[in-house]
Every structure is written in structure tokens, then in C-alpha cells.
Amino acid sequence: MGFLVVLGGGESGVGTALLAKAKGFKVFVSDKGIIKNKYKEVLIHNEIEWEDGMHSEDKILNADVVMKSPGIPDKVALIKEIRIKGIPVVSEIEFAAQFTDATIVGITGSNGKTTTASLTHHILKQELNVGLAGNIGDSFAKQLLEEDYQNYVLEISSFQLDDIASFKPHIAVITNITPDHLDRYDYQFENYIKSKFRIAENQTEADYLIYDADDEVIVNHLKNNPVQSTLLPFSLEKVIENGAYLEEDNIKLTIDNKELIMPTTSLTLEGKHNVKNAMAATTVAHLLKIRKQTIRESLENFQGVEHRLENVLKINKVQYINDSKATNVNATYYALESMDAPTVWIVGGVDKGNNYEELFPFINEKVKAIICLGVNNEKLVNTFGGMVDVIVETQFMTEAVKIAYKVADSGDNVLLSPACASFDLFENYEDRGRQFKNAVRNL
């Protein structure tokens, strides 16, 4: 089969290595950082050659194909070398997809993709044999090897889409596109938009693209760059003939003159953005012939995603909410929009070129105090300093929560919604969210 080099010994890298070995490839895993012990053990157990703390270039440049972890940017010198040599560079999603005939639902977007993917999977699994992979849980490659489901719901990031060639989901979903990760796209929003739209680039008219028709970025891009797939938009603002829209308190979905009506009162998840996530998931379920009753029941009992507007505890009539997964401004916009009480807002981390202006109306209307939790909080203090009475800086989660406890009054919310990446003080957004929850439980 050839020689595959895997760059990055994380979940997607090790999953790809296992699948490739099973398919007869010679495999070498190389990570410039240190590979976690749990992954090292898997590589050793499966007799897959690996190295960490370095890249052996001579060996790597002999590859027939390179799978690179989504975390490695294109501008790294080694990646440039590999490309100059004409060695194909693919993502895990691209590599794995060639080994399955399963029906694939691919979900991308700046926000909402984890909730939409989890909700879609939750509905489909009631009646279908279906896996959930991509940016969630076990890697797609590993699931293909171990489970080989007939259907997959994949949460796919723009970084994974950057390195596809032939990957094609039968049903693609774009939840929304707002500026994020611009540091990886030469600070050109247009490059990031194109990257997201690659999810539909190999689709034909027999495939479907589900998208937010209220998102001007998506609508304008489609106008100027038409796709071949059958379009099924969803909207809260306009009537949609083929697709989903909101009529009074009902989601109305029409596909090929078949109509489905779902009351939004049955949604367990609150907030306008979750009505949209439900529209997208319902559209997928309807395309895959899931019964109406099943869809309705699934929407009613879906529990939501950890670290996404997750109610932690109520202490002295103050609700503590963990939204650590809000790693960009748009996600925090949704969080603040759904607050219905005065809010103490914990924000900060690694700023990816954020523009906070769209949050100003909520700050004036709902936020009573701001706690900046980051190594460098200067931009936050300069931006919001004049808008609230209390603005405090800290670099410790326990301290942030203690300050919030002092500032909040009965009936208030304390919201962790950082609008930034977590890598300055935490391992990842999950670590940040768990530290928040632990600090709240220890109050």
C-alpha cells in the first residue's frame, strides 16, 4: 500500500496509524511535542514505529502520503518541504473516508457544530446504526476500524477540510460562519470562508447542503460560488419553500413537498441559536427517513453538550453557567443573548484577533461585572473598562470564581464564556470548564 507518515500523535494521528496499519501501510508516527502516555501505549502495543520531541526529516520526506494533525499549520517549514517534494498531505477525514461506503453527514461552522452533531447523532441513533466522530470523541479512523457503522455524523473543523481532496459527505451542514482562527488564514476572512465551503466541493446534485439562510456570509458566498448539491436552508427570519423556517412557535420543514411540523416548545435547549441547531438536525433526520415521533421525542430528551451553556449549580439563588466551549466572540454572543438575569461574566484567554463590538449592547443591558481570566487582559480592560462598574483581573480559576461569588447577588448569573482560546492558562477548553465546575462545587 505504501509508506504513510503521520504527523502528530494525538487522537486523529493514532487513529489514522491504526487504520493504515490494518490496511497494509507501512506507518511512522512523528510528533514534535511529547506524545501522551495513553497514545504511546497504543502505538507500542500495535507495533507502530513512532518518535516524539523531534521530526526525522530524512525519513518523513520518503513518505508516499502524509497525514497531518489539524493542529499543525501549513506555514511550518517541514510541511512546505513535504509539499515541494510533491508528497500528498491529507487530513484524517480524507484518509479514512476512502475505506468506507457509509452514509456520511458532515457538520462544520464557526459555532454550534458540536451541539448540532451531538443532537443529530442523538436523533439518528434511535433508528439507525450510526457513529459520532471527527472533532468529537474517538477519531473517525479508529471507529472505521473498530465499529464500521453504516452511517457517521462527523463534526469537521476548517483545519480538517483544508487537507481534503475527494472527501464528500452525502449531507453537509454549515451552521454559520463568523471570524475565527484568522491567525491560521493569513488574517483573511475570505480564506476561512472558502475553507468551510470545501465541505460541499465534491458534492453532486444527489447530495445535500443544509445551511443558515440568515447568515449573510454564507448566502453571499453561495451567490458568487454556486455548489452542485441540493440546497436546504433554514431560517428564523424568512419563509423557506424547500428547507426549514420558524412559523410562530413551530419549526416548519418542507422537503419535496413533504411537510414536517415540530413545536419549539419541545426543545430542551434554550436560545435562538439552539432553534437553528434543531432545524439543521431535524432536516438531516428527515432526509434519512427517521420517523416524526422519534425526532420529536429526541428533541425533548436531548441533554446538551458539556461546556456549552451548561448549568453547573445554583448557590444562594445564583446560577453558575459553564460555557468554556465559547472560544470565539460569536459563541459568547449567543451566551450573553440567552442570559435573562444580571450577569457576572468571566472572559479571556488567548485572543485570536477578536473584535468585541457586537457584544456591547449585551454588556450595557445585562453584564454587571467582568472578571478577566488570562495572561494578558489589556485588550479586555481597554475595551470594556468604561462599560461596567466592576472589572477585575486574575490568572487563577479558583480566584475568578471566588470574586464572582462575592460580586453576584441573589437572582444573578455567573457565566464563564471566555470568547478566547484557553492555551495560556489551561490545557484546553475542557480543562478550563472542569476547573470552573470544580471551583464552583468547592465554594
From TrEMBL:
A GO BP annotation: cell wall organization
Subcellular location: Cytoplasm
HAMAP family from the UniProt entry: MurD
E.C. number: 6.3.2.9
MF GO annotations: ATP binding; UDP-N-acetylmuramoylalanine-D-glutamate ligase activity
Organism for this UniProt entry: Seonamhaeicola marinus
Cellular component annotations (GO), alphabetically ordered: cytoplasm
Gene name per UniProt: murD
Swiss-Prot/TrEMBL catalytic activity: UDP-N-acetyl-alpha-D-muramoyl-L-alanine + D-glutamate + ATP = UDP-N-acetyl-alpha-D-muramoyl-L-alanyl-D-glutamate + ADP + phosphate + H(+)
Pathway(s) it belongs to: Cell wall biogenesis; peptidoglycan biosynthesis
Keyword Cell cycle belongs to the record: yes
Organism superkingdom: Bacteria
Protein name: UDP-N-acetylmuramoylalanine--D-glutamate ligase
Assigned protein family: Belongs to the MurCDEF family.
